[in-house]
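step=predict obj=Succinate--CoA ligase [ADP-forming] subunit beta n=405
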Amino acid sequence: MNIHEYQGKEILKRYGVRIQEGIVAESPEKAVEAAKLIMAQTNSKFVVVKSQIHAGGRGKGQIKGGTQRGVALAKSVDDVRDIAKNLIGNVLVTIQTGPEGKKVNKVLVAQDVYYPGESEVKEMYIGILLDRAKACNVIMASTEGGMDIEEVAEHTPEKIVKEWIDPAVGLQPFQARKIAFGLGMTGEAFKEMVKFVTNLYKAYVETDASMFEINPVLKTSDNKIMAVDAKVNIDDNALYRHADLANYRDVTEEDPLEVEASANDLNYVKLDGNVGCMVNGAGLAMATMDIIKLSGGEPANFLDVGGGANAKTVEAGFRIILKDPNVKAILINIFGGIVRCDRVATGVVEAYKAIGNIPVPIIVRLQGTNAAEGARIIDESGLKVQSAVALSEAAEKVRAVVAAL
């Protein structure tokens, strides 16, 4: 589950990580009120207005059809009003959103932290995620903050410091110090960075996050270390342990079909192909998508109805798949282990009749408990549904359907 920058900063603050303070606003008027309050509290003439969408690259992004950037420095209250008016309700296009962009529903009005002082201001990058190859969490840090980390990794990989953390042991003090040294910190800034890394890792672990990315991490002119941005992803499978974090979900930022699937307890991910697939089990879903590819088609989605496939879940799956205008055929591939194939077949027939005329060909491959009985139910239904038992048979029927598209 992705969350907004301001929500990620709320988590960080709870764990003692210094953040760039800010106030969320959903209208230009609220943004002005927030700016006045922040200016009074910080004794600053400037604030930063930051669009809140689930995508990176906001600073370089632009409002569709305009010139307004997704992150902008406001030097007056009037600037705040104008920037917020240009952002809220409009579509921001960044390198991560693609040309369709994302609608901005709110902005974060944040304090100006690039204030003058005796020491040099420095931007850095710190990210934490799971390295599956090593079965360890890894902290990645770079002196090149404020830039796309992918570009740094490609062109100057020597500027990235990596420290692998054994989950059974946790982050050790010497590892936090290695990162601080690697980022060139000295004196008070070094102590601040060690504390920053330690608290950041604690936040990552205790919230069951799959990623924490802070870009930039700022060393201020008075040697404070703070998170100026926060990109956070929480593991969906762990949300039952974090009711407070589950409330951070913003369905307006998600694909409507994925939201509908979630409401029906289906695992659905939209893809760009022309053959919809409905299966029970993630591994079988991957194999089914391979079948579609080898048959000359392209999978239009990943849809796992789980082990208890029935008429209700199959009907919900049908409705979701058919809302994708790119779908020209549907392959249902069910292994009858926990669930019997004849029950699935009955569910398919009932769902087909409930929906009415389905305008695309449907191939149902059933294997496992009562597979022959399930095929008989499909074949005798009188509906435009083709049955298959063997995987090769399903592949041939998909190939024929794809060839006719």
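step=describe
Residues 187-206 form the longest helix (20 residues).
step=end
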